[in-house]
Amino acid sequence: MSKDIIRLSGVIKNSIVDGPGFRLTVFCQGCPHHCEGCHNEKTWDFDGGFDGKVEKIINVAKSLPLLQGLTFSGGEPFCQAEAFAELGRLAHENGYNVVTYTGYTYEKLLEGADKHPEWMDLLKQTDYLIDGRFILEEKSLMLKFRGSRNQRIIDVKKSLESNQIVENYDI
Predict the structure, then answer these.
(1) DSSP-assigned letter for residue 167
(2) pLDDT tens, 76-125?
(3) Are strands 23-28 and 5-15 parallel, antiparallel or unpaired?
(4) Distance separating alpha carbons of residues 104 and 12, to the nearest angstrom
(5) What is the C-alpha end-to-end distance of the chain, expressed in Å?
(6) Whole-model pTM?
(7) Element of type H or E holding 80
(8) Is 42 helix (H, G, I), strand (E, B) or coil?
(9) Where are the domains of the chain?
(10) 128 pLDDT higher than 90
(11) Which residues on neighbouring strands pair with residue 99, listed in sequence order?
(12) Which run of H or of E encompasses 118?
């Protein structure tokens, strides 16, 4: 893929469950994690879904007057990190915040950034990262913006600046 095209499973306008405020949630197609109990199994197949232009997605966001941010979900956004980083850059240029969901841990993303520099690009365009695989045994419906207790909400900017993980559950 290129930085201009995202393989999509779908897009939801004005979501209130995928981050703070009204959000445009972009579900990418393709996921290597295959978590037991995943609520989005249809996104696993890398050959499924359809292509969407990054420019068209940001234009949809700009057409929603109450929108506060974009959420990148999946599938696994870091499997298409270059295009999601570009979408994140455009989101920030237009005054939106960015939440990214990933089955990888923050630590794994940092470790892999040498081999996958596009991962760091996406991290730098992410305000809040919800990290970690969904674990069915740790599932809780009481968690804000998370499916299982092992998942964290990480303030990426503060974490990168301080070189340590800064969690924030008050977003």
Answers:
(1) B
(2) 999 999 999 999 999 999 999 999 999 999 999 999 999 999 999 999 99
(3) antiparallel
(4) 23
(5) 32
(6) 0.96
(7) none
(8) helix
(9) 6-162
(10) yes
(11) 71, 128
(12) helix 117-124
* Cβ-proximal residues to 34 (8 Å cutoff; 6+ apart), any chain: 44
Farthest-apart Cα atoms in the chain, separation: 40
Edge-to-edge strand ranges of the sheet holding 128-131: 50-53, 5-15, 23-28, 69-73, 97-101, 128-131, 152-155
CATH for 6-162 (3.20.20.70, 3.10.450.50, 3.30.390.30, 3.40.50.720): 3.20.20.70
Which phi and psi angles does 39 have, rounded to 5°?
Answer: -85, 5
Q: What are φ and ψ of residue 71, in 5° steps?
A: -120, 130
Share of residues in the chain with pLDDT > 70 (%): 99
- Name the region of 28 (left: φ>0; alpha: ψ -120 to 50; beta: rest): beta
Query: Which residue carries 């292509």 as its tokens?
Result: 51
CA distance 118 to 168: 24
Structure tokens at 85: 């980083």
